[in-house]
Amino acid sequence: MEGVYEEAYGFEDYFPSMIETLGVERFMEALYNGFCLLMDVSVGLITFESLKRNTMLMGLNELGDDELVCMLAEGDLDGDGALNQMEFCSLMFRLSPGLIK
């Protein structure tokens, strides 16, 4: 299944090589920085609005609102419609098939 996803969406899992290069502690810092980049600083969460604003800044304008909502829903464990740091990190690890091996 993972090969189909990688072929269909051009996904390449960089997390294993990042951990190997950076070490676990620096990798976790990089993951935290990614969360901070995407979050709404006024609430400390990744919200639909902050995700939409930051994906546009990163040149990912092709993502539709429905895709952004799905991304949030995929990681939203407490049902508040946003991602806290733990939900974000959990989602990133679940999306990294290389870390599961």
Structure description:
Residues 63-98 form the EF-hand domain. This is Centrin, EF-hand protein. InterPro entries: EF-hand-dom_pair, EF_Hand_1_Ca_BS, EF_hand_dom, KIC/PBP1/KRP1. The protein is mostly helical and 101 residues long. 65% of the residues lie in helices and 0% in strands. The chain has helices at 2-9, 15-22, 24-38, 48-57, 65-75, 85-94, 97-100. It starts with a helix and ends with a helix.
Quick overview of this protein structure:
The protein is mainly alpha-helical and 101 residues long.
Order of helices and strands: HHHHHHH
Helix content: 55-70%
Determine Rg (CA atoms, Å). 14 Å
In the predicted model, the low-confidence regions spanning at least 5 consecutive residues are: 1-9
* Structure class: mainly alpha
Taking the sheet with the most strands, its summary is: none
Number of helices: 7
Q: Tell me the overall shape.
A: globular
Domain EF-hand: 63-98
Organism: Datura stramonium (Jimsonweed)
Keywords: Calcium
Protein name: Centrin, EF-hand protein
Task: Set out the fold topology.
Blueprint: H1 2-9, H2 15-22, H3 24-38, H4 48-57, H5 65-75, H6 85-94, H7 97-100
Helix pairs in contact: 2-3
Task: List key phrases describing it.
101 residues; mainly alpha; 7 helices; disordered N terminus
